[in-house]
Amino acid sequence: MVKRLALLGAGRIGKVHAQAIATHPRAKLVAVADANNEAAQALAAATECKILSIDEILNSDQIDAVIICTPTNTHANLIERFTAKGIPVFCEKPIDLDLERAKSCADRVTNNQTPVMLGFNRRFDPHFKAVHDAIKAGKIGAIEMITITSRDPGAPPPEYIKVSGGIFRDMTIHDFDMARFLLGEEISTVTAQASVLVDPQIGELGDYDSASIILTTKTGRHCIISNSRRATYGYDQRIEVHGSLGSISAENQRPVSIEIANQTGYTRPPLHDFFMTRYLDAYAAEIATFIDCLEQGSTPSPSITDGVAALTLAEAALLSVKEGRTIKVGEIL
Amino acid sequence: MVKRLALLGAGRIGKVHAQAIATHPRAKLVAVADANNEAAQALAAATECKILSIDEILNSDQIDAVIICTPTNTHANLIERFTAKGIPVFCEKPIDLDLERAKSCADRVTNNQTPVMLGFNRRFDPHFKAVHDAIKAGKIGAIEMITITSRDPGAPPPEYIKVSGGIFRDMTIHDFDMARFLLGEEISTVTAQASVLVDPQIGELGDYDSASIILTTKTGRHCIISNSRRATYGYDQRIEVHGSLGSISAENQRPVSIEIANQTGYTRPPLHDFFMTRYLDAYAAEIATFIDCLEQGSTPSPSITDGVAALTLAEAALLSVKEGRTIKVGEIL
Amino acid sequence: MVKRLALLGAGRIGKVHAQAIATHPRAKLVAVADANNEAAQALAAATECKILSIDEILNSDQIDAVIICTPTNTHANLIERFTAKGIPVFCEKPIDLDLERAKSCADRVTNNQTPVMLGFNRRFDPHFKAVHDAIKAGKIGAIEMITITSRDPGAPPPEYIKVSGGIFRDMTIHDFDMARFLLGEEISTVTAQASVLVDPQIGELGDYDSASIILTTKTGRHCIISNSRRATYGYDQRIEVHGSLGSISAENQRPVSIEIANQTGYTRPPLHDFFMTRYLDAYAAEIATFIDCLEQGSTPSPSITDGVAALTLAEAALLSVKEGRTIKVGEIL
Amino acid sequence: MVKRLALLGAGRIGKVHAQAIATHPRAKLVAVADANNEAAQALAAATECKILSIDEILNSDQIDAVIICTPTNTHANLIERFTAKGIPVFCEKPIDLDLERAKSCADRVTNNQTPVMLGFNRRFDPHFKAVHDAIKAGKIGAIEMITITSRDPGAPPPEYIKVSGGIFRDMTIHDFDMARFLLGEEISTVTAQASVLVDPQIGELGDYDSASIILTTKTGRHCIISNSRRATYGYDQRIEVHGSLGSISAENQRPVSIEIANQTGYTRPPLHDFFMTRYLDAYAAEIATFIDCLEQGSTPSPSITDGVAALTLAEAALLSVKEGRTIKVGEIL
After folding, report:
1. Class assignment of domain A3-121?
2. Which chains touch C (3 or more CB pairs under 8 A)?
């Protein structure tokens, strides 16, 4: 039986998920809801699905699960409403910008006993997954030090920054989740530095555009995260894990692997321009995992608890920058 | 309007095309025909299409075009029958193992004035296409010397070799087409050497498993092709073009881009295991181009004439090996 | 005129410098001194120089400059004695493990007005120098974030650890100098984490074997340093500088650039096994620079002041680990 | 005892060898001879050796061996004169442009029973040597197909072309020797194509600037050589060997290993600009091997016979181009 999905939010990331659903052999997008009627119509036309209101989707018996891609401040409410009805939810990160709200939502989800999967797409990237699997297979022995380099191609506009929750909750949150995914051990301390080097407007809004973070675990493992809101050469997404027996790394990806050699040297093209192309395979694998969970009745991962954990680290990083000290994660919980 | 396609032949390459059709937004596989009923049923079930006989497909008014993936010795007849009915054809290479038969088929297609596209999938590989486009854009100046390295992961079984037409018609034919695609000038001479180094059985069948070919054009450009039926490290598919202003190359592709460093060194995984995964994107782009031609009523390329040209070079290569001399292409025509 | 050099200390690093001197066209090693007679004899035999006592060297009028490669705790005194005599000094890092002692030595050197060059060899590595020069030439715009990865192939024995001054003064000191060399702006804060992950003996001696450090400058630039005392794949020495217009990186070096492809993948050999081979060119260029300064009477760089600055950062890093907070460099000065 | 060497010829390659001798711990350049007095004086000054006439060198009892770097047309005579006196010779390739003359010289050398080493420097390149050693160690199983890419940065002036003996005897001769060095089996056929694509002047002089050659051995192994007199990106020197168990390759070399990433992509610097820097290590290792042979009284390799063999292949290639057919090496001998 094909799983019938409804999409809440027809924006940039909504379209990415709609595309992933379209290529899945056992999933079908049957409805889309968006306050912006034009966006809803465009997506409905492209995918041949119906336009419904959120309430109509909530009350429909023709829908097996929802994909939430609405603005962040609606996530927690929507998760609660749909899980209360027993409708499985896939929700984009973050749960909420407020950690307390995210936690109360997670508690409600636990009560509702309905599956919720969080959109940490990078766990499903084939290259990063191969890193994860090689670690699990013991290829590099015990993990000691992880380096995550994560740089956006360009800074978002002030309007986006204003509602983003800041660099740690908006951007680093993916790296916090990746660190947790790879380390195989909970993070115990967060130490961060942040600057405004790319765009002074970001600083005027109280946010940062460049950040360096050191995470440590109880057994002393380190993870370094390097973030920037601008990389002229494309979407810079690399991971390197150093272990007792060796190191493993996942290189950057580019649309085509060619190289031109001439008087100025050997030049390969820039990287993917952003997440819509860089993580195309990851989004498809993520949706496929969600569909698998629906089919098998298994618990999806990453879960809403993973969402709370990543948000906690973001909170700790922000506090670390403000107070100029290492934050114990227990201080935040 | 979605283009309704029928697939003739549900074997290995038939499945590849069925998958490409499944992910195309404006194409739909509506029927499959295969003498092997089990193969037909499996593909029909997977793609939710009907099983029809070739005659039923020929006479249906519900079919916009056919994809021919049947054994080689049926290609020319099927091309002629379908184009006689005005039904556009996409046909796997080669047209026929016999050059005369291929030419007579091409003549008939010209008379029938119905579009025929030949399955030289590599032209649609995004990396090779980027090489082609960069050349056209003048990035390396005038082309001087091309090197094509093309090695299969492993030798096919004797049963395949027997009906394959030999390494030049079966395997090098793709490289001959790539040489023509990139050189932008017709090939005037063919000089070849061939050996049995991989599997003595191949030699017993009168074929070769290792070949080196030099092509030249009228203006003196060279193209070297290096073929082997075995590469332990995967499907080795590389192109390098040397020009007056620089060189351009397309590197090998692997499923995941990771690297493990340990006491034995730095190791990246083997390449794709064969064409089904290596050229996944190419097959999708190839079918998309065919659909575009159907929609726009434009002439598809590579055409049946390209198929005849590549076959002519294969014939010349064989003669060169046998006679130990450079063959002028005019000798073959 | 060939510059006549005397070498104090015929140990591991002493031999490296002796080799660099041997290949310099305008320098000659004329004397060696070492408390260990065997070491002195071996080096004297290999380089055809005399064995003298330190006092004899100090009082000789046949010596143009000295290279100090003795144990760390003798550096400051030797620097002071030779500069007091007006004999130019090249001294291995660090000046002293005690920051106060290093500073008083630097003050004395200033008074003596005799050239002293500090052995921060990495500044002279052709690859890192090319990074430095490209930055100066504006190739990546304004520097924003630097990442220095520096891992030894294996942990030194406890005897070495005991007298090393700890990982920050012994190992990271090179990276602190490199950060200063590249940033082009003084460092204002140091934040560090350190662990014992490689060898528990190191922990028992009160030292660490794994460290992550974030440096910041007044304008908000970041530099991350990642250190480990063990890398199974060789001597891991990489630098990456992210700027407003792009990034520049210097890759790891290996003795031979070959790659073997087989069923297990594509494997390149391990890296250089340690600094003696990795920085062979750097040591030669370093000595050449020292000779140039002697010939031209110019002030050598890196200077003893650079040595004090790097030692100050090491001190700050240690304090940061101990107090779990960001240290302002001004606190240390 | 230090070996005392005399250098005949103070031109470009003479200087390269003088430098290699200067860095050898047990060799010393004691004399130089050159018809061009200025060149002789410059080299003598730089290396602190005497200027002697060839006859003076021939009759000196202070000279252990000679390095012949004079114009090609003097090589055979000089080899004969020095070996007749029992003075070991290192001679630059080729022995002579005329195969018969080269052979008669080789015969004379055999009679004289004095060591002669031919200057096929690439055998001593650490990267190519590592390829050779890995093959010998069985890392890729049985050799099947070799690809040698060898491109000069730019075409030499007409004056050079005129006396060069043509591309096969002047340039490809190195690749012929490399093929023999790696194949471990004598070459039985030569098939070549050659064009004028770089510089019409070269064609006017009856020579070619672009060549593709296929060599085969009795057991059917292939070696492809691709030559061009121009590569805008530097001195292009690559080798790839395909075997039954895998492939091995030696990559191009550049002065510094850095990479700059920006909006136009990822760029590494051009390659070495020519043999003087690319093969610096090879020249040093070559001279060191010659010195070793002198010290141990062992027979140097590559020998004058290797020089004759490579020249024979050059002759065969030329004949192949002229006659448009595969040449059996036995036809030339």
Report:
1. alpha beta
2. A, B, D
